[in-house]
Write a structure and sequence with these properties.
Layout lengths: L1 H38 L4 H10 L3 H9 L21
């Protein structure tokens, strides 16, 4: 009897916590995409719309097909082309 009362109380709390965690992770993803689009000279609005409306495929597409940064990649020391095997 006591376990039933606890689980009835905890179920909505767990669902609410999971929903809040998802929203926070989604917001962080969007903010990161906006900053990355600005750094690469692309429209943050278009990147954000693509990521939101086509989530998760829009995010994967942006990560795969995004252009090089305008600063020449000085902020990121790892360049895949420097480590390719011939």
């Amino acid at each position: 009897m006591l376990m039933s009362g606890i689980s009835d109380f905890m179920a909505p709390l767990v669902e609410l916590s999971a929903a809040c965690l998802f929203l926070v992770l989604f917001a962080v993803t969007i903010r990161t995409c906006i900053a990355d689009a600005r750094r690469r000279g692309k429209s943050p609005l278009l990147v954000t719309l693509a990521v939101i409306f086509f989530f998760p495929l829009g995010l994967i597409a942006w990560l795969l097909f995004r252009p090089d940064p305008l600063d020449g990649g000085k902020g990121n020391p790892f360049r895949l082309n420097d480590h390719r095997v011939q």
